[in-house]
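Fresh eyes needed here. I'd like your take on this protein's tokenised backbone:
***
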Amino acid sequence: MRITGGIVTYNNAKTIDRCISSILEYTSKGNYDFKLYVYDNGSSDDTVSIIDSKYPEVTIIRDTDNKGFGAGHNAILKIVNSDIHFVINPDIFIDMDTIGEMAPYILENDKVGMLTPKILNNDGTEQYLPKYCPTIRYVFISKLPGFKYLRRRYTRADETFDKPEPIEFCTGCFFGIRTSYFKEMKGFNNCFFMYCEDTDLSQRVRADGKDIIFYPYATAHHNWQRDNTGNLKGIYRFLKSLVVYSKKWKVPF
């Protein structure tokens, strides 16, 4: 079984070492071939030098401009040759062979389009990411006082997921997919610079008749630091992507 992983970086010097170290540590224990690729979007910090000096086995694709999350992963997709491909955020780390656990399930189940593990916070508690696709009500109104129940509904936080089962949304921070199918779907839609590209891909996969499966037997830790609420540029990018996504898929309120 040939497996590849792709990471897109932009000034991720604080997290990239732990990310790559954990992935290489646990994939080295598996009975499969694994190759990791990193696409750097013109980082101005030490991201690239850290990878160059510590991980010569990692293939780095350097760009001079920040072309965005989806475009970076699509560039990796063009050159990989594997059975299963994993999209991995640079702020992810693992403490088990998550990739080796997930890959066979994808290969053994033709109806699986994308497979996402249980995502954990740094302290090991579950990070309740959306299991429904976003709507304006879920994204914005759920943040208002008195409407927290909408957020819990959005993330399905009050439901028990103790076996693999279908969900609507596959987070872009970590997922596995058949490489041939990812290429067939032409990767991420480049009209999304950042945010909602994972939601758009989730919709396209489900529209194609495939399942998105939440796989609780495998875990990945996510050092979540979203900038869509931390600065004006991030808020603008998030809103722009949400508008494009909502128009394309005619998302209800």
Notes: The mean pLDDT is 91. The beta strands are 2-9, 33-41, 59-63, 84-88, 92-93, 112-120, 165-167, 174-178, 211-222. The chain is about 35% helix and 25% strand.
